[in-house]
Amino acid sequence: MLSGPGAWATRLYPASLSYLSAMTKRLFVAIDPPESTRKFLAGLDPYIRGVRWTDVEQMHLTLAFFGDVPDAVDLALREKLSAIQFGAFFLPITDVGTFPPKGLPKIIWIGVGSGHPHLFQIHKRVQEAALAAGIEPELRPWHPHLTIARCRDVAPQSIRKFLQSNADLDAGMIRVEAFHLYSSKLTPAGPIHTRELTVHCRE
């Protein structure tokens, strides 16, 4: 039994010790487009009220989002992700749309082509690595994209002109040579992403 000055704290806050032994990080895996592509996408901002453009440094293609992951599982996840092997490939940055596709938009996205086999193969391997580390996979269908803006109380007609003028958007091809494990800390000013691990393609 605990005694002394720390005993009262344990009685008042019985979860405190278990909390310290099970710290978590909010984790996701993503592909980062090159800076030139991110700056081009940032330059598309039409400055519409209620539409908040994604910061250049935050633009990425999410392969998997895991939420809060305990430290022990984090270590296992890093090991499994590091073992993934893949070759470099190219992705087209093309098309524009919203989520949801009808009604009040919440997200404006840029697409990466449809059904790209190399991209979906990496996604599958990341999901398998997460499952092997003890993380339940997301069951929702995966729609690869780059989120370029978030909308708040924006009527569909407010962004219709932007969507129409960029209907045939083609931002070129990007070469995918690596993917990254990020931690995300939520703050009043927006999320802060920290790169935790990089997995490079095989030569």
Description:
The chain has 203 residues and is α+β, with helices and mostly antiparallel strands. It is built from 6 helices and 9 strands; from the N terminus they run H-H-E-H-E-E-H-E-E-H-E-H-E-E-E. The strands form 2 sheets. A 5-stranded antiparallel beta sheet has the order 2-6-5-4-7, with helices on one face. Strands 3-1-8-9 form a 4-stranded antiparallel beta sheet, with helices on one face. Strand 8 (178-185) and strand 9 (192-200) form a beta hairpin. Helix 4 (71-82) runs antiparallel to helix 5. The longest helix has 17 residues, at 117-133.
Computed structural class: alpha+beta
Strand line-up of the largest beta sheet: 2-6-5-4-7
Helix and strand run: HHEHEEHEEHEHEEE
Supply the number of structural domains. Answer: 1
- Describe the largest sheet: 5 strands, antiparallel
Give Rg in angstroms: 20 Å
Mean pLDDT across every amino acid position: 88
**What is the CATH fold-level name?**
Cyclic Phosphodiesterase, Chain: A
Total helices: the number is 6
What amount of the residues lies in strands? 25-35%
User: Would you count the extended β strands for me?
Assistant: 9
Can you tell me the residue ranges where pLDDT is under 50 for at least 5 consecutive residues?
A: 1-21
Helical percent range? 25-40%
**CATH homologous superfamily caption:** Cyclic phosphodiesterase
Return the CATH architecture. Alpha-Beta Complex
CATH class: Alpha Beta
N-C termini distance = 57 Å
**Overall geometric form:** globular
